[in-house]
Amino acid sequence: METNDLIKAIARDAAAPRLSLGLLLLGACGLASVIAAVVFSTLLGPRPDFAEAAHTTRFLLKFVITATLAVTALFQVAELARPNSRPRRRGALLAIAPAILLAAILMEIATIPTAEWGARLVGTNSLICLTMIPLIGLGPLAVLLAALRHGATTRPGLAGAACGLLAGGLAATFYAAHCFDDSPFFVATWYSLAIAILTLAGAAAGRLVLRW
After folding, report:
1. What whole-number distance in Å separates Cα of residue 132 and Cα of residue 194?
2. Measuring CA to CA, which of 26, 53, 89, 105 is 20 to 30 A from 146?
3. What confidence tens digit (pLDDT) does each residue in 117-155 have?
4. Which of 156, 135, 143 is nearest to 29 (CA)?
5. What is the DSSP string of 114-174?
6. How many other C-beta atoms can be found within 10 angstroms of the C-beta atom of residue 16?
7. What are the residue ranges spanned by the domains of the chain?
8. pLDDT > 90: what percent of the chain?
């Protein structure tokens, strides 16, 4: 290729309309949600008493906590996608979901006899929770990492971890519809561990695929 042809090709590429990173991330979240929904529906599906459980505070709180985590993690992903990112600026938002969970735990402590705490923490589906949330979240994590490659992060590990946290929040939101353990004790222990698995996986993958 001649030099003039190369210059013209570069100019055409620069002039071509590009999708903004924000819209790209929103689209990636939409696709990630669809993937999570398909995997959830294929492997689990909602619990049989979903309609009845939807009238209880503990059941609904699970969705509030996990969805809040996903939304705040998305803000962090968007921040880390830029080379001049300041994670601390939006990092405080990530404390919202744990704060809601802590309030729920305090309510549980105040209303449930001490003798029942252990059983509620262990629950009946801990192994399924630890397995299914990461499994549901793997596809969304891959989609989010692929979208973030169109950014210019200078913190690939941290950006990957944020993607894992977002994928974990999405996966946990779907899994909550199946889970029979509604206690905040259970959510704080097993949901957190399952989401942590995806966060660590995202951090490791981010160091590999998000480097310049």
Report:
1. 8
2. 89
3. 998 999 888 999 999 999 999 999 999 999 888 877 888
4. 143
5. GGGHHHHHH-S-HHHHHHHHHHHHHHHHHHHHHHHTTS--S-HHHHHHHHHHHHHHHHHHH
6. 7
7. 21-209
8. 65
